[in-house]
Write a structure and sequence with these properties.
By secondary structure, the protein is of the alpha/beta class. It contains 15 helices and 15 strands. The protein has 2 domains: about 220 residues, Rossmann fold; about 180 residues, Rossmann fold. The chain has a 9-stranded mixed sheet, sandwiched between helices. The longest helix is centred in the first third of the chain and has 26 residues. The chain is globular and about 65 Å long.
């Protein structure tokens, strides 16, 4: 273990790799992820699997977490873990978090670069704070690929509606600087692509790589009869429970279904963790909804997929217009009909596969959910979603585009 005053970096494995066609050493990609540990970053894990299958060597810089354990001995993967940052509290708390993580990640990358060449640096964003690292690594011979999952300005507005305008201006500036330094930018939907092009990204260098599930793993999942009692219906919500994710609306929706609409046989499983989990559990208990709600926290993909294979319907309650919800992609992969708010990117993704309700109308969402469970249109909606995943959204469909961005030119 390498230890400094601020960070400690653990090197798990540094395999020699299987080589790349036309080269005398493996192609080496280093990825940096700040806001979740590697073991919980489903998108990055899919990307790493694709790179390893292509014969690359991969290094990942991530906060240390128990979920990383299964990956610490993976051949040809170097896992560089730093001490987690302090839990943020308010906008200023995030500045502390980002500064801490940036320092730890800079140390890890410097030590990695002293040991071996880095061909590609992949920055998993947000936060958009890596411009200095990107410039240094480009000077050292690496190509810079930005994988933009969210937009910081919209994320700030969703979390802190009263944030100072100066913060928004700084975030916009960082967005533009990032696009100037990036050789390639990948993102998760067309709205984000258009925004990044407007921030200065060259249109030919900004492309969409959908965050669909791995279809072969979806098809291996089986229903679990222990997840539901006889005579009950199961509704599933999956995701991170942050301020921006709408999780605070879930208890109101459950109470509307169970009590206002008098459907006590409907059960809800809310799978995921995040800063709002404890408050959500407390609110469910305060409203007396514990018999109807399961809140296990973070669970492995196998458990999520067992729930999706067993459910009657899915649920999305986000109100972020620019977000393509991963949960929706997973519902569609399982042929699971779902209800959600009518937002631009959700509509673009799930039109014909979901019931769309005016944004913010929780009572309307609850009514639509009950009608979906009772009505005959569920299988048809599920079929539309499944075909869309098979034809264009599944991760297997994204791999060629992703490898073209990070592989040898």
């Amino acid at each position: 273990m390498l230890v400094t005053d601020q960070c400690d970096v653990r090197r798990a494995v540094d395999g020699e790799g299987s080589g790349m066609p036309g080269g005398d050493r493996p192609w080496h990609v280093a990825a940096v992820v700040e806001n979740v540990p590697y073991g919980q970053d489903h998108r990055l894990r899919k990307q790493v699997d694709a790179m390893l299958a292509a014969g690359f060597d991969v290094s990942v810089v991530s906060m240390r977490h128990e979920s990383n354990r299964p990956y610490r001995g993976q051949p040809h993967l170097t896992l560089l873990e730093h001490r987690p940052p302090p839990e943020p509290s308010g906008a200023r708390g995030y500045l502390v978090e980002y500064a801490w993580s940036f320092a730890c990640e800079a140390v890890a990358l410097a030590r990695l670069r002293l040991r071996r060449r880095i061909d590609v640096l992949q920055l998993c964003q947000p936060p958009d704070v890596y411009v200095p690292l990107a410039r240094v690594m480009r000077w050292a011979g690496a190509r810079v690929v930005v994988d933009q999952r969210d937009l910081m300005t919209e994320l700030l507005a969703a979390r802190y509606p009263g944030a100072p305008r100066a913060m928004t201006a700084v975030l916009r500036l960082l967005e533009r600087w990032t696009q100037r330094v990036a050789d390639r930018t990948l993102t998760v939907n067309e709205m984000l692509r258009e925004r990044l092009v407007s921030a200065g990204g060259r249109p030919e260098n900004v492309s969409v790589v959908w965050n669909g599930p791995v279809l072969s793993r979806v098809d291996a999942a089986r229903p679990d009869g222990t997840l539901r009692e006889p005579g009950t219906r199961l509704v599933v919500w999956v995701g991170k429970m942050g301020l921006q994710d709408g999780a605070a609306l879930l208890p109101e929706l459950v109470e509307t279904v169970v009590r206002t609409l008098d459907r006590p046989e409907v059960r809800f499983a809310f799978l995921g963790d995040g800063e709002c989990l404890d408050d959500l559990r407390a609110e469910v208990t305060r409203r007396g909804l514990d018999p109807w709600v399961t809140l296990p926290g973070w669970v492995a993909e196998e458990t999520v997929f067992a729930h999706l294979a067993s459910a009657d319907a899915g649920l999305d309650i986000s109100q972020q217009d620019e977000v393509t919800p991963v949960k929706a992609l997973e519902y569609m992969a399982f042929g699971l009909p779902f209800v959600c708010f009518d937002l631009a990117e959700t509509r673009r993704l799930a039109s014909g596969a979901a019931v769309l309700v005016d944004a913010g109308d929780v009572a309307g969402l609850a009514k639509a959910l009950v009608e979906l469970i009772d009505g005959p249109e569920g299988p048809a909606l599920g079929g539309v979603g499944r075909r869309a995943v098979e034809e264009r959204l599944a991760w297997e469909r994204q791999v060629p585009s992703y490898l073209a961005a990070v592989g040898p030119a």
